Amino acid sequence: xxxxxxxxxxxxxxxxxxxxxxxxxxxxxxQIRQLFAANSAEFVKVGIGDDAAVLSFGxxxxxxxxxxxVENVHFRFEWLxxxxxxxxxxxxxASDLAAMGAIPVGALSALELPRRFRESRLVKLLEGQRDxxxxxxxPIVGGNLTSAEVLAVxxxxxxxxKRAKLRSSxxxxxxxxxxxxxxxxxxxxxxxxxxxRGRRGSAVDRCVQAWRRPVALIxxxxxxxxxxxxxxxxxxxxxxxxxxxxxxxxxxxxxDAEALEAVLADELxxxxxxxxxxxxxxxxxxxxxxxxxxxxSRLKRPAVARRIGQVVDGKGIWWATRGRRRRVPSRxxxxxxx
Amino acid sequence: xxxxxxxxxxxxxxxxxxxxxxxxxxxxxxQIRQLFAANSAEFVKVGIGDDAAVLSFGxxxxxxxxxxxVENVHFRFEWLxxxxxxxxxxxxxASDLAAMGAIPVGALSALELPRRFRESRLVKLLEGQRDxxxxxxxPIVGGNLTSAEVLAVxxxxxxxxKRAKLRSSxxxxxxxxxxxxxxxxxxxxxxxxxxxRGRRGSAVDRCVQAWRRPVALIxxxxxxxxxxxxxxxxxxxxxxxxxxxxxxxxxxxxxDAEALEAVLADELxxxxxxxxxxxxxxxxxxxxxxxxxxxxSRLKRPAVARRIGQVVDGKGIWWATRGRRRRVPSRxxxxxxx
Lengths: 338, 338
What we know:
The structure is a homodimer. Chain A is built from ten helices and 14 strands. Chain A has about 350 residues and is an alpha+beta fold. Chain A has two domains: about 120 residues, CATH 3.30.1330.10; about 150 residues, Alpha-Beta Complex (Phosphoribosyl-aminoimidazole Synthetase, Chain A, domain 2), CATH 3.90.650.10. In chain A, a hairpin with a 6-residue loop joins β2 and β3. In chain A, α4 packs across α5 and α9 crosses α10. β6 of chain A pairs antiparallel with β1 of chain B, so a sheet runs across the interface.
């Protein structure tokens, strides 16, 4: 099964595997953009097509996003505590603000609650949201409750920034930067989905925690505002979101194999071994890390950013290793692999 | 089954009938308010507790709301076209802006899409949203797509106003005003839920249309800004929302039976007869009309507002007829009565 995809994203497999896809998602999102075209409306600076919408108010830019977390699509109850569900829903949504370089102002939370979800569990979920809200400095200022068949948490956030960072401003010659870790969350999910096999040790703990309790990189995103040219979060996986960035900027991206290998976390290597999967595969295609991918001039690279490639002329995502270059297949990101 | 309830609302039956309620909703929302207390945060002028949150930016107040519309909870596919579902979800959410006297700036739409919901149907739903967006002058500037078991549309809107109207500012001595019609939507739902019985004629058409294609009273809401003291929308039914207003303002409300009888729409009387239900019952307890209930000084009553009672000292909702007074039972609003 697949995770959610903001209107701005359109990886071919982001809703469901190709063999069961009733919707041509790429065409569909193009159609949505056309139907809802509104970039010229008053106050609207950026409409559909980026991590979040941007409104302009009193000299400030407001960055506004929405994200849903649905039982049996984004998580299973066996894999997350109720508090984790609350935490995760807020940080996943906040990651869009991080990508735009915005500081959270507030959140609204719409909860769809199944009848079997008793009050004591709901309180745990709300406590997870509250803790996430504290960690983000982002008060939850309202919401909505409704019954439903399965649990779903839809979160909308507003952030503010002087000037929102977009995914469409990469330039040929920019370096490609990774901020945060790639692949850990997918490795953690692999451990959880695989049952008890290989579920012990601090490396496993770190990976599982990366999936259960992601942290939106708000401070890093803000630090990129004066430094980076284009930014996107890699919730859809490094390759998938590099594609979104490349398409929006009308450039190609070359991943530097040695540079990327060098920044993989030791815990990722260890857990990938236990899962019998290449660590690089998890880093390239594993989603939900909520790390940031940015481009910018070498001279402006901040300390938190690690170079993993460069922006080049052309189309698509390329893999450069020992002087050779080949196209990276766009197989979408891993999620609920069972 | 019940409709959704914003965190600010807390009618005892707004989530589900009392006999199957695992959650003490009144206590729960009090708990949510306590957990999420954030009225003192930067930019946040009003947090949980009204139709919408209010943020303060550059001399403007931004009114921000979220609302969900879930298959088999808020609608059934037999009763609404896909375009109706799109239209209805946006206007229902926009009604919270109307109540606060705000002009829509933009909307985000999070769609949970079941696999059986094919692209052609989704496009109809999106067209319904687009038409609603045009009618409201409210561009849809982003959103999110995810798979799910059942269809759900969660909509967040931002509006702007000089000064948001709250539900907590009613004063003893104010008149109680109704803006728009009460009971039509519930009558229309009654026709739909009752199958083909009594489903013909222009009165039925008007009631069914009131349920299928509600219209948020944005202009009326804005017109109330300089005139009314407190405003709320009656999506939870006239009595239910009068209670919310009375509780928030720490006053009692006396409904004037003759005045209310006088403003009932002829179509409501006709359809109520066919449904063998008292028209007044539908007007008092029928939800989802998205009309507005306001209080204000007699001297400031605008032309669109019709007096149906007054604000008095005390607690609760009272029914005044021919000089006698009795308490109105708080049985919550009708929805999916089957």
